[in-house]
Every structure is written in C-alpha cells, then in structure tokens.
Design a protein that fits this description.
Blueprint (H helix, E strand, L loop, with lengths): L6 E2 L2 H10 L7 H8 L3 H13 L4 E4 L3 E4 L8 H8 L5 E7 L3 H6 L9 E5 L21 E9 L9 H17 L6 E3 L3 E4 L2 E14 L2 E10 L18 H5 L5 H22 L5 H7 L6 E6 L2 E10 L5 E5 L4 E4 L3 E4 L3
Parallel strand pairs: 4-5
Antiparallel strand pairs: 1-4, 2-3, 5-6, 6-10, 7-8, 8-9, 9-10, 11-12, 11-15, 12-13, 13-14
The structure holds biotin (BTN).
Length: about 325
C-alpha cells in the first residue's frame, strides 16, 4: 500500500509523547492502559517514533524513555494564545510541503489559513533548493493570506515577512543578539542561517492576490542532525541551549506576521525602511550575486523602493536586482 503523503496529527501519538514527557521509563502495558489501546497499538506507535527518528531508549523490563523532551505542535494551544484572531490553523503530522498543501486548499479565498506540519517529505526552499524538515524538531509553517492588491504592488513583501520573523526570533531569544537579514530573506544569527522564507504568489481573482508565505525556522535542531544541510546553519537551541516548546514560538510568529502584513497592506514597504537598515547584513559589504546565470559583484547599498538589492558596480554605476543568490565576497 502506498504511504499517504498528508497525515493529520495522530492523537494517540500526541498522548504517548505527553506520557513520555516526564523523562521516565513507561512500559508497554502501562502505555496501553493509559491510552486505552492494545499492545499491538502501542507497538505501532513505537514503530512510528522509530520511523520518525525520535530519539528514545528502550530497555527490557522498563519500557521506553525519551532522550530529550519533545512537545508536539498543538493548534488549540496556539489558537488560545492568540485570543480572538480569526484564523484557521491546521496541524499535520506529515506533508510533502506546507506551502504546497495551502496552494491546493479549496477554502474560501478571503480566509487567512495557517498550516503547520511536524515534518515535510518535500520541503522546498528558494531557487529550487530543498528544505531539510525532520520530524518534531523545527517549525515548518505556511500562511495563505489574501491581499487586496495586484501582484505588482507586492514586491518587497518577502523582505517584510523576513523582518517579522527576525522580530519574532529576537523576542524569543532576547535583543542582546541582533538577528540580521541577508537580502532578500535569509534570517541570520552569528553569521549562520536560522530561518528561511519562501513566498509563492498565486493568481489574482475577485480583486484578491493569494499569497502563500512559507517559513522554516530551525528550533531544536542540534549539531547531531546536520546532515543534508549544505550551508552554515544555526538554530534557537544552538544559540541559547534551551529546548523549546514550538507552540509559543508559532503564536508569536503568527501575531507578528499578521501585524507586519497589515502594515504592509496599508503603508507598503516604505514603512519598514529603518527596520530593514538596522537588520541589513549586506549593507556596505562586498557582495557577489548570481542573477540567473549571470554573476555580478559590487558593494551593497541597501534596497530601493521596490525592495530590490542595489549594488554599486566596479564602474561606479548603481544596479538594482529583483532576485538572485547573494554571498559575501571573500576578502
Ligand atoms: C529558503 O531559505 O530557501 C526558504 C525555505 C522555506 C522553507 C519553508 S518550511 C515551510 C514551507 N514549506 C516549504 O516547502 N517551504 C517553506
């Protein structure tokens, strides 16, 4: 039988992980009793943990113990911390990509929707890259947001989203560590990438532009998990040593993101100039940029009114770039 690519969060898995949360051993019989399931049912759940590479120890006669705390995502908990904000949050156990899931959603277009998943099997990044998305570690978040704007008015949106993520992360770890942004929207801490953003714009209809905003934040990822990531990366846990309950971070992210999107809808990118300047990692630096197949190098001068990156080229001319892959030139 073909494995399903989209799974809603299995409530027995949630209960099992809540039980194991105390860091103690629990044997199969007591797990079965507490969850009101058979030994076979318990065995299936344990297999699921193995398949998802959740680190646990099993000892004959004692049962199972989690190696490190794992609190699963909980849509109700997130919704409760947000209060009365009208929003539909779906939490999945597994999906190919949360962005793809929302792009295919049939829900009314004027509704704001959020999709979170514990893992992605085909998480995608910018420039056709993939996004490493192991189970239970990080945040894989997408929001479908209806703008009453046409597509041409949405340039700069990805920078505004990056600002909202940077602000969220600064709220979580404190402001002593300034989160920087590498144009257009890499979220960088101590020179390493902590979060990435992929915005996919769908066709306009009835005066709305549908935008799917995908955000991946490395939260409880640690050195042990770094296979599959090709660039220097960081995580909240790497910076602070804390194992986070991701639900609080998601609530903070949603509330900040909505307020930034609202401001962007009303005032556009110009309202965020100062904030961008404060976080702009590239400003004044020697930068290399691949735009299509064409390499450019120059000194970064910040952004223009459309959010394009402005480079001062070797001949002294200024050139704006609407997209591309940037890196700091090695001195
Ligand atoms: C990048 O920096 O390349 C962007 C990464 C974006 C990853 C997120 S995770 C949630 C959402 N779903 C996806 O498939 N991608 C985005």
């Amino acid at each position: 039988m073909k494995a399903k690519t989209t799974l809603v969060l299995n409530q027995n898995l949630v209960k099992l992980l809540r039980l194991l949360q105390d860091g103690q051993y629990h044997d199969g019989t007591s797990i079965g009793k507490t969850l009101n399931i058979t030994r076979g049912g318990v065995w299936k759940l344990i297999k699921k943990l193995e398949q998802y590479q959740v680190a646990f120890t099993s000892m004959k006669g004692k049962g199972y113990q989690l190696n490190e705390p794992l609190i699963l995502l909980d849509g109700e908990k997130i919704q409760n911390s947000l209060g009365k904000i009208p929003l539909k949050i779906e939490v999945l156990e597994k999906v190919d990509s949360t962005n793809q899931y929302l792009k295919l959603s049939q829900a009314p277009i004027e509704e704001v929707r959020v999709c979170l998943s514990e893992m992605q099997t085909k998480g995608r990044g910018r420039l056709n890259r993939s996004w490493y998305s192991p189970f239970g570690k990080n945040i894989y978040f997408s929001m479908r947001y209806p703008f009453q704007k046409d597509l041409s008015e949405l340039s700069g949106l990805s920078l505004v989203v990056a600002l909202s993520v940077a602000h969220t992360l600064n709220t979580i770890i404190g402001f002593q560590e300034k989160i920087k942004l590498k144009w257009p929207n890499d979220v960088i801490v101590q020179g390493e990438k902590m979060a990435g953003i992929l915005i996919e714009i769908q066709a306009e209809s009835n005066g709305f532009s549908q935008v799917v905003i995908g955000i991946g934040i490395n939260v409880n990822e640690t050195d042990a998990d770094q296979n599959n990531i090709t660039q220097p990366w960081s995580s909240l846990k790497k910076i602070t040593g804390i194992n986070y309950d991701r639900n609080g971070i998601c609530a903070e992210l949603i509330s900040k993101l909505l307020s930034y999107l609202q401001r962007f809808s009303v005032s556009g990118l110009s309202d965020f100039n100062t904030e961008w300047q404060e976080r702009d990692l590239l400003f004044g630096k020697a930068v290399e940029l691949m735009s299509g197949n064409q390499p450019y190098s120059g000194i970064a001068q910040g952004i223009d009114a459309q959010g394009h990156l402005v480079l001062k080229l070797a001949d002294g001319s200024l050139k704006g770039f609407s997209s591309g892959d940037t890196s700091l030139r090695k001195q």
